[in-house]
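Re-run with default settings, no changes from the original entry. Doing this only to confirm the output is reproducible before filing.
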Amino acid sequence: MDIKKALKFMLISTLSFACMNSIVKDLVHISAYQIVFFRSISTLVITTSILLKYNISILGNNKKLLIIRGLVGVTSMTLFFMSTKYLPIGTAVSLRYLAPIFAAVFAIFFLKEKVKPIQWLFFTMAFSGVVILKGLDTNIDTYGLLLIICSAIFSGLVYVVLSKIGKSEHPVVVVNYFMIISVLVGGVLSIKNWVNPVGIEWPMLLGLGIFGYFGQIYMTKAFQTAVSTSQIAPLKYLETIFTVLFGVFIFAEVYSFWSILGIGLIIIGLVLNARFKERSKKLNNE
């Protein structure tokens, strides 16, 4: 295992996701549904090509769970894209990362998993960041905040559905279902509000899926290459830092002291929870 290679993969992944987020922010005049459509169709071309090349069944085994994963995923993605029209892009990304907290709560009921008391402390720390963002930062739009929290809730449900699917499906099959459903939902819902892309907007829209695909692929490679998850997992939050920097230097977004403090508490709480879970898993396996 090569930790330097794993770090390089994670760096490429987080930069790819940050670039995708920045494109979404720049295309604020295009509806979220249309962005979902373009974000998904270019990735769909890649995933379908891979499945056909390696003769992997596109239909999969558990079609019901695959469809549910797709529906929950496209709901989360659409709400996230909608929120970026009301919130600074870095704030939206950091709030979306609340998903593991909601996933832990859902896992209690659907997967019969337990949450340790110290994890609730970490979750409280993360949510205190949300309270600071909304309570002390006057630039935070209430509707945008509601959209991104709902996005994080549905993203948390994705974690649970993926746990149910487990290793019974090829990862590319899971992503392919997600993209098929996203293309259908995004395409149908964007018909009434369709905006014809102009000039550079075409490659930008198609680039959404390409950046998203490489972000996912290199994140997977990073986790596969690292000796342990705890070495790499905290680095995925670099996406927030890169996105904030893009927001400041490209879109001239302004982040107040309270914004930075709130985002920081969210990231710290989630990183501590991730490290605790990894340590607990190691102890249970010894």
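The longest helix spans residues 257-285. Residues 3-285 form one domain.
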